[in-house]
Sequence to fold (305 residues):
Amino acid sequence: MNRNDLRRVDLNLLIVFETLMHERSVTRAAEKLFLGQPAISAALARLRSLFDDPLFVRTGRSMEPSARAVEIFALLSPALDSISTAVSRAADFDPATSTAVFRIGLSDDVEFALLPALLKRLRAEAPGVVLVVRRANYLLTPTLLASGEISVGVSYTVELPANAKRKVLRRNAPKLLRADSAPGALSLDAYCARPHALVSFAGDLSGFIDEELAKLGRSRHVVLAVPQFNGLGTLLAGTDIVATVPDYTASALTAAGGLRAEDLPLETGSFELHMAWRGAQDNDPAERWLRSRIQMFFGDPDSLA
Fold:
């Protein structure tokens, strides 16, 4: 196919194809693209004619791509990223007048402790923009970025899509939270003897602290696991339960009163908070502005270098 032949290709069809590759479902693709299922089915029929291939074969409730579809997707996805980048570079962005919708993914600790300050700044600079926040973590962020459901995510991350970019925002030291009035810091023995609360998205009863304690031949007893940080202060109030949380979360929780924070009675090192974003939107003026504000309000001073 030469460049002139591209005139018969509808770019919208390629967007539908990419979405079907991610969703493997006509229903979910329709929801993602805000279209009706008949429109997606019609687009799929045109795609099959265009590429002279079935592209997707239904297996149970899922649609599995053909070998040809996988080959097309490998070539098409970076091409669409390049088109998106080319178009975005030509667009101006004025925060004061923009009505852009930004879709970001935040881990619970970030949403609770860091989002309020960012939101105040966004309201002051760009009162017309809309912010959609999705819950993210190291498991969810890669999928949300790859599917385009978010353009940027802030959480601890491990693996990311091949075209994603990443930056360290903070290196955090965990803090111990307690609501009791006993004087002095807890010793390691007292820390291990206390009942513990754990914030866990998946409902786990152990975390990295338990790994560090195991290195010392010690352990702790978790008596409460909750899915989010909001309300943790109320749960600890009037009890001898302690919690280990990121330092920025500890600051937000102690600011409300009734809790105090102290250093842990063991060495744990620091852990990283990352900002990851879609490579296709690396040079988008609006996204660059948003990422600069995220770094300003979520990052530590070292991240601004």
